UniProtKB/TrEMBL annotation:
Enzyme class: transferase
UniProt name for this protein: Alpha-1,4 glucan phosphorylase
Annotated source species: Serinibacter salmoneus
NCBIfam families xref list: P_ylase
Cofactor: pyridoxal 5'-phosphate
Residues bearing PTM N6-(pyridoxal phosphate)lysine: 679
Keyword terms of this UniProt record: Carbohydrate metabolism, Glycogen metabolism, Glycosyltransferase, Phosphoprotein, Pyridoxal phosphate, Transferase
Family from the record: Belongs to the glycogen phosphorylase family.
Taxonomic placement: Bacteria, Bacillati, Actinomycetota, Actinomycetes, Micrococcales
Amino acid sequence: PADGGPNRSHPLALAPVSSPPVSVDGFVREFLRELNFGQGVALSASTVNDQYLALARTVRHYLMARWLETMRRQKETQAKGVAYLSAEYLLGRQLGNALLATDLTDIVADGLAQCGIDIADLRAQEVEPGLGNGGLGRLAACFVDSLATMSVPCIGYGIRYEFGIFRQTFVDGRQVEQPDSWLALGAPWEFPHPDSAQEVSFGGHTETYTDSDGAERTRWVPAWTVQAVPYNYMVPGYQNGRVNTLRLWRSVATERFDLRIFNSGDYEEAVRSQTFAENISKVLYPEDSTPQGKELRLQQQYFFVAASIADFLEDVLPEDFDLTKLPERIIFQLNDTHPVIAVPELMRVLVDEKGLAWDTAWEITKGCFAYTCHTLLPEALEVWSVELLGRLLPRHLEIIYRINEEFLEEVRERFGDDELRIRRMSIIAEHPERSVRMAYLATVAGSKVNGVAELHSQLLRDKVLPDFNEFYPGKFTNVTNGITPRRFVRLANPGLSELITESIGVGWLTDLERLRELEPFAADEEFRARFREVKAANKRRLHAVLTERDGVSVSDGHMLDVMVKRLHEYKRQTLKVLHIITQYNRVVSGEVAAADLTPRTFIFGAKAAPGYKMAKDIIHLINAVGSTVNNDERLEGRLKVIFPPNYNVTLAEKVIPAADLSEQISLAGKEASGTGNMKFALNGALTIGTDDGANVEIRQLVGDENFFLFGMLEPEVEALQAAGYVPSSYYESNPELRRAIDAIASGVFSGGDRHMFDSVVGNLLQEDRFLALADYAAYIEAQDKVDAAYADQEEWTRAAILNVARSGFFSSDRSMRDYIDRIWHTPPAF
Ligand code: C3B
């Protein structure tokens, strides 16, 4: 065409996007074409990885038409959407989900079989993108899945880490971290667009100048710049023809900029900035809930939000867009404090680059952000030192100061010169060093602030941010977390899914409250037998996986008692260990005959932050207890401890459906929500848990009689701490507890070495920040009740079925509806 653009009216371009033929033959042709022409190998010479890559690319084709169509309609309608800003997305494997979304699982399996390939082998070849630490990152993945399934416009923004969460190995029972080279064998699900890179700058200084209208303005003169290259991922809705986008940014050096420094002769500076650039998206920080305040981490945060905002304003919005209407077009959801630097960044763009007046820009900004808080641990609320922030982002620091000044002025207008209150509420903390409280900044800027479970939101309002709650009535709200039933029920538990569909028909996967219709089946003996058979089959499947993966077996006929989550003291894996040791002691002391123990296999899965010494010591202890228990013949095989290394989404999908008992034993008031707890309940495990996070809501829904509650309530925890908690007093007054701790301290689990676990024992007896010893007696009592209940398999199964039937509330689709109603106001678009 004359204008040099693409010829959109070419006859073939009118309908360029159509899916490949959907038939077994059609699939085989597509697959072989990918293998031959895409991968460059003949079927006879292909490796499993060749086949996997060709399959992934073939399946991708089936989603492509929907993806392009979704983008076209979004561009056309300009419907209001969500930009989810998250430093983490713990996606899990993509292939199974893409096949489910397109409903092609059977066709593909048949076609591959005709080629002599077992689809299971290709599934197993996929390395999951582990671009998150734990709950927060997995939640983001569930949310984007639900939004696509509900046809809500959403673009997920994040970082394409070259190395995701480390691969955990054990050497002599201790955690050793290996790099997660998830990209090494190819990345068939991503679409890089280096031509659409954004520039992101750092450092330098600011200066004022007078613009052509004679107005006094500020500009930022940065010292170095990197390129942010977008990598797009498809986020397919479940069989609804919609595919949303996840856009992850990779940092690369900017040639142009480097040249400038090279030419100025400062070679070292040029090399430094090059290394900086490549480093920014190199590796995910493996800290869960305990940020370290590292400079590179702030660089990562600013890098991805600056690229995302620029991308949205420059590439997603139409050119002539009226920026005062921005809040009607987009909501930037801040997933914890990690992306909060986006607030001053949007202000900078609107004021410095677009020339808007400060007040106008601030109104827009306040309308465009909302903030989700995921924690209550004070050490997990991010702060950045003024020194670092000012050095890396001088203009942003100025903007934050001005936001704070105006905010505190409002506080003064309301409350007078209440200096204590002003100091409490200031976005800038003065001690121990001058720093920016990112949660406060997010609260001041956000249209809404939400916690992630009822209890958490209440504590957030009343304990963490009470001044803000008073100052901003109506700003605080709750949205209880959820999980996607597509991945965590349908894909992870096909047996249960089939049983459900047979019983209540189709449709429940996108309307999970319909699981209620299963309730009557709990009374049906035949249904219970089938439900148990599904569980048994899931245990056999797990056995097969663990045998192949780690050479360990899951004993037949055992209750499967599972605690999988990040290793953190507040989650209290040590309490679980003390229970195992207690059972062990009861047998070796002769109090209980081994034959009278309920046979149990305990499964742990947990990564510890590499710098978190106590967490790593606890991992060592679990492994040591495991090898002692597993090898003591006096137990007659009635107890077994398994700790498969490198717990991740892929393993979760095998472990959770096999579980009988779900361990959710955090100290009340510390676990914001938990999402594993929901996955277990939905897969028919019973929970033993404290009154914490979403456990509270799970128990309310499934019923007290179908949940093993124990331990102090949050106000009791507070009272005990206020009164002065003395852990050793529990040790002294409870003989069984004393015997358990003494067993560790006397070397029972360390081949006689009395000092191997000094740190754990010393910590428990002297500090025990999370009150494990105070809840020990109640926990053991509750576990004894679990054993008694498990003896009646009919009753147990009835309770398990009711757990499934009554947990539909925990679909992330429901979470998304709550966000839409309470915060986003973004209706489904098509
Ligand atoms: C987690 C919390 O610890 C969980 O209770 C919660 O269910 C999830 O977030 C999702 O809301 N969390 C996390 O994984 N990482 C953080 N930095 C803070 C909270």
